[in-house]
Amino acid sequence: MKLTVLGSGVLIPVPKRGNSGYFLQTEDHSILIDGGSGTLRRMVDFGIDYKTIDTICYSHMHPDHTLDLVPLLFAYRHDPELVKPKFLKIVAPIGFQDYFNRLIEIYGGSVLCDWVDIEIQEVSRGEVILEDLLLICGHTEHTAHSVTYRFESGRGESVFYSGDSDVNDELIASAKGVDVMILECSFPDNLKRKGHLTPSECGLIAEETGCKRLVLTHFYPEILDTDIISAVAKYYRGEVDLAYDGMEIEL
Ligand SMILES: [Zn+2]
Ligand SMILES: [Zn+2]
User: Cα of 115 to ligand 2 centre, how many Å?
Assistant: First the structure.
């Protein structure tokens, strides 16, 4: 598997860090994990063909994680190079179908088309099987229905994505022993906000899960000038990296 970071920032514009978006390439699947505004554009920048996406996994419906869905569908409708018919599976938290229906009320006529077949599966906890891949969903503390995703390949490689999250036992249980843990790290320790993580919390979580490698992401501007790595290293002794847009993680 190969994971590319498309956006390691949030909605507040800062240089070189876009809204949340990740692209996971497996043997059989091309998966977009979240996709805030600008995600499609970043895919082009990093040499990824957006037409190959067959699955989208949303962690929650905040705009910095979902806003590029309408542009994606609009592009699929108008791109002459799209291979038709196009099948797109969307895995998303409870409430997504209603969110999608409302988007379609506004944009439906201009974004839907006969050759793009969309299947929506709402998830809260449990497993989704995508041929070569096991996708394990878990609840986390952020919005009422926020989910985490753990992807496990048939070869035993695993990657965990927290989405936006606060500290909670279910997240830790779901990420146990994972190869790569992508964890949000929004604010510095002295500016903790409910529903998000700080570097010390990320360190404690990583140590408890025993993950092999920790990659921190979803940086608000306030945290960017702080020493994130040192704060994490007080609690976690494994490899820690700060995500950047365009970062590639091979598993
Ligand atoms: Zn959020
Ligand atoms: Zn967010």
Answer: 32
Mark the residues whose beta carbon lies below 5 A from ion ligand 2: 64, 164
Ligand nearest to C-alpha 142: 1
CA 138 to ligand 2 centroid distance, Å: 17
Q: How many domains does the chain have?
A: 1
60 alpha carbon, closest ligand: 1
**pLDDT single digits (tens) 215-247:** 999 999 999 999 999 999 999 999 999 999 999
Tell me, letter by letter, the H, E, C secondary structure of the chain. CEEEEEECCCCCCECCECCCEEEEECCCCEEEEEECCCHHHHHHHCCCCHHHCCEEECCCCCHHHHCCHHHHHHHHHHCCCCCCCEEEEEEEECCHHHHHHHHHHHHHHHHCCCCEEEEEEEECCEEEEECCEEEEEEECCCCCCCEEEEEEECCCCEEEECCCCCCCHHHHHHCCCCCEEEEECCCCHHHCCCCCCCHHHHHHHHHHHCCCEEEEECCCHHHHCCCHHHHHHCCCCCEEEECCCCCEEEC
The predicted model scores a pTM of 0.98
Which ligand does the CA of 185 lie closest to? 2
Domain that holds residue 141: 2-250
Domain harbouring 191, CATH code: 3.60.15.10
